[in-house]
Amino acid sequence: MKLLNKLILVVFTAVLQVNVSVANAAAEVKKLSDDERIQWWRDSKFGMFIHWGAYSVIGGERGKQIAKGGAEWAMDKLDYTIEEYEKFPTCSTLNYLTLMNGLPWPKMQG
């Protein structure tokens, strides 16, 4: 029984040591500045998709409450009922072309 207890203690200590090593390695990750992050974004050729759904109309807010996790969670996080949420306009009821033409569009980079 004493041998089993010692074996369990050794295994536990080894696992604990590995966890500490992993935590230290994670702490050494370099935090990028905003300029470095946006440069990475451009170098990686990422784009951004903008959704013009009902939640974009309310912007993830209800009074002074803000939806945690993003505006797309507004119905769930801000306790909108289905009836209240259905009152918001959708893409089909917005004058989409007028909205799009009124926005300043960035120049495309090659």
TrEMBL record:
Alphabetical keyword list: Signal
Native source organism of the sequence: Paraglaciecola aquimarina
N-terminal signal peptide: 1-25
SUPFAM superfamilies associated with the record: (Trans)glycosidases
Alphabetized Pfam families for the sequence: Alpha_L_fucos
Keyword Nucleotidyltransferase: no
Designated name of the protein: Alpha-L-fucosidase
Sequence ranges assigned to domain Glycoside hydrolase family 29 N-terminal in this UniProt record: 25-87
Keyword Membrane (UniProt): no
